[in-house]
Amino acid sequence: MVTIDPYEEGVQETRQDFTGNDFRITRALDSLLLSAKSITGDEIAAEDIAARVHTLRHLLKQVGHDV
Predict the structure, then answer these.
(1) Cβ contacts of residue 19 below 8 Å, gap of 6+?
(2) Which residue in 4, 17, 50, 59 has its CB near the most CB atoms, within 10 A?
(3) What is the dihedral of CA 31, 37, 38, 39, to 10 degrees?
(4) What is the pLDDT of residues 20-63, one digit of tens each?
(5) Could you tell me if 42 and 49 are in contact, meaning their C-beta atoms sit under 8 angstroms apart?
(6) How far is CA 16 from CA 21, 28, 36, 49, 54, in A?
(7) Separation CA 62–CA 48 (nearest Å)
(8) Where are the domains of the chain?
(9) Torsion angle, CA of 37/52/67/38, rounded to 10 degrees?
(10) pLDDT per residue over 1-15, tens digit each?
(11) Against a cut of 0.90, is the pTM above it?
(12) Which residues fall within 8 angstroms of residue 22, CB to CB, at 6 or more apart?
């Protein structure tokens, strides 16, 4: 007889919810990166924003997001 642990089932649902927004997160990060690249008046600020977006993407990948 197979017993289903409701806690484990809940963990799976939580994981699905967790990764369910990856597409939206990816689009938001891509949009921020495009905006940073379009800054022409202040190259240092543009590079800083782009670096922060890359760092955020890296951190999200470390916690399990597919972005």
Answers:
(1) 64, 65, 66
(2) 50
(3) 120
(4) 788 889 999 999 999 998 999 999 999 999 999 999 999 999 98
(5) no
(6) 9, 20, 31, 30, 24
(7) 21
(8) 21-67
(9) -10
(10) 566 655 566 666 576
(11) no
(12) 65, 66, 67
